[in-house]
Design goal:
Elements: H1 2-28, H2 32-55, H3 62-75, E1 86-89, E2 110-115, E3 118-119, E4 122-123, E5 126-132, H4 137-158, H5 164-179, E6 189-191, E7 198-202, E8 215-218, E9 221-224, E10 228-231, E11 234-239, E12 242-245, H6 253-256, E13 257-258
Parallel strand pairs: 5-13
Antiparallel strand pairs: 1-2, 2-5, 3-4, 6-7, 8-11, 9-10, 11-12
Helix pairs in contact: 2-3, 4-5
Length: 259
Amino acid sequence: MLLFYIAIIVIKKRSFNMKTKLLHEVRAVKSKKELANIIKAQRISERVLADALKELRLGVSEIEIDNFIKKSFVKYGAPILSFSPIVSFGKNTANIHHVPGKSELKIGNAIMFDIGCTVNHYCSDMSRTYFFGKPTKKQEKIYLAVLEVQERVLNKIKKGERRAKVLDKTARDFLTKRFGKNSFSHGLGHGVGTVIHEWPNLKPKSEDILPVGCVVTVEPGLYLKNFGGVRIEDVILITKDGYKNLTNISKNIESAILK
């Protein structure tokens, strides 16, 4: 009798997991209206980032830029954020969840932004890294490596690869080989919708398959303790022919150098 009840529990658990997975998959595929909200939120985020770059100056603090970003989202009609903005300078860019503080901007600093807002409850998400003045050779090397690995992943998606763990492995193997095992310390990306971290998950052990019509981030990063980090994050739409990049902010090395 005990074995009978155990079998019933196992069957119910499997049924629940299958229903949950199906719900996630249905939710992940965005309608035209849902996609329009995400794109609008993304465009607002891009305007806010462009404005924030103009506020960067010698001696300005992370928290000052953070406050400016929050006020700018209100100005553009998107007061509800996807998450608290990340603004980090110098060595703080090595902390993937850095909380903006009193650190002041100096010549030669890396600057990392991770921002997003909501439109009709739908989220945007974007990371960019800049250099306040000419980057060192090491800074440039790290930036170009992150940019290259993002392009490698996007090319795989363009060719039809949809397995999340394969895409994550593409990025992780490339960065680990060049910069060490712990240099890339988070997943490659995640779904975006009414919550900022939605199914599917692009991480090493993920069994998720990216369905056509879902919106995901592709955000490789490198984080070197006591030195700094680089993260480049785009939001993309998975299409029948590959993908469509929904992020319009430049990311080549020239655009990353602030003079």
